[in-house]
Amino acid sequence: MESKQILFFCAILFVFYLLRTTLLIIVHYIAYVLLIYFAWNLAFFLYSFDFVPKKYLGTKNRAILITGCDSGFGLGVAEALYARGFYIFATCLDTESLGAKKLKNLNDERILITQLNVTDDASVKKAKKEVEDYLVRHKDVSLWALVNNAGVMSLCEIEFGNLDHIYKQIEINCMGLIRTTRSFLPLIRHNHFGRGRIINIASQAGRFAMPGFSAYCFSKAMVISFNDCLRREMHKWNIEVVSIEPHLYRTNLVNLQRLQKEFDLFWNETDESIQNDYGRSYYEGFQRTMIYSLETARKDIERVINAIKEAVILSKVQPYYRIANKHELIRLWFWEMIAPIWLIDLLMRKLLTDCNGTPAMLTNRVKSKSN
C-alpha cells in the first residue's frame, strides 16, 4: 500500500513538474512576444522622430522630370514640386489628359509638358530632345532628378488570357522605366550640381507575391532589383537611387471598370481546354476576390506624394521608402523575416485562392470517385 502511495505521489509530482515547465515555457514565449512588440514600437518611435532637423535642398535652377503625369501620383508630385519652386518636365502619355490640361493651365515657363510613351524608343528620344532644347534655352537650369512613375496593373492568374498582358506590365513597369532612365541619366550626370537623383516607383507587391497579382508583382520585383543594381553602379557619379514602395492606393491603376473589362477579355482569350479545367464558376469567384481586394485600396495618396517629394528635396535620402503605418511595417517584417514559407503560402491560398471556389476539373474528379 505504501509503495502505491509513493508511486501515486511521484506521479503527481511529475505531472506538477510538467505543468510548471509548460507554464514557464508559455510565460517565456508571451514575454518574448511582448518584448519584441514593445521593442518594435520603440524602434518605430525613434525612427519616426527627427532627432536632427531635416535639411532641404535649394530649388534654384533645379529641374525634375516626372513620367506619368496624366493623373495620380505623377500629377500630384508635379504640382507639389512646382509649388516648391522647381522647374518641372512633366511627361504624359496623352497631352490632352486631365493632368496635362491642369498643368498647362498654370501657364508658367517653369513647366514643360511633353508626350512620352515609355515603351517606345522614338517617343523617349523625342521627349529627351525637347528637354535638351529647353535646357539650351535656359542655360542656368539643370536636370536634378528623374521620377519614374508611369505604371500599369492587370489582374490575372498565370494561365488565364494570353501572354500579352504579362508582356505589357513588364514592358511598362520595368523596361519602360529602364529605357527612360538610360535616356536621361547623361543629363543628370552633366548637371551643374555634381550630384543627382533617380526616384523609381516600385511597390510592396514587389516584395510580397500575391496570387492573381502575379505579373504586377514580378514586374515590380524587377524594379526593386534594378534599383539596387543602379544604386551601386551610380555611386561613383554621386547619383542617388531611391525606391518608393507604396501599398495599394486608389489611383487610375485601380480602376474597377477597366479591370472588369479586362477580366472578360482575359477569359475569352483563355484556351478552351483551360476554361474547361477551371470552369466559369471558378473564374467568377476569382473576379469577386480580386475586386474585393481592390476595394481595400487607400484614398490618401498624399502620403505617397509626400514621400516622393521628400525623396527629391531632402539633402540626405534613404534607399527605400515603404509607405505603410506601424502595424503594416510589423506585418511586413514578420512575413519577410520570421514567417515560414508554408505559413505564407497557406494564408495566401486562404485569402486569394481557396475563396474562388473549386476548379471544375477537381469537382468532376471528386464526383467520379464517389460514383
Automatic annotation (TrEMBL):
Q: Give the protein name, as stated in the record.
A: D-beta-hydroxybutyrate dehydrogenase, mitochondrial-like protein 1
Q: Which SUPFAM superfamilies match?
A: NAD(P)-binding Rossmann-fold domains
Give the family per the record. Belongs to the short-chain dehydrogenases/reductases (SDR) family.
Lineage top rank: taxon: Eukaryota
GO BP terms: namely:
steroid metabolic process
Q: Which species?
A: Sarcoptes scabiei (Itch mite)
Pfam families the UniProt entry points to: adh_short (PF00106)
Cross-referenced InterPro entries: NAD(P)-bd_dom_sf (IPR036291), SDR_fam (IPR002347)
GO molecular function list: oxidoreductase activity
Entry's PANTHER family?
A: D-BETA-HYDROXYBUTYRATE DEHYDROGENASE, MITOCHONDRIAL, SHORT-CHAIN DEHYDROGENASE/REDUCTASE FAMILY 9C
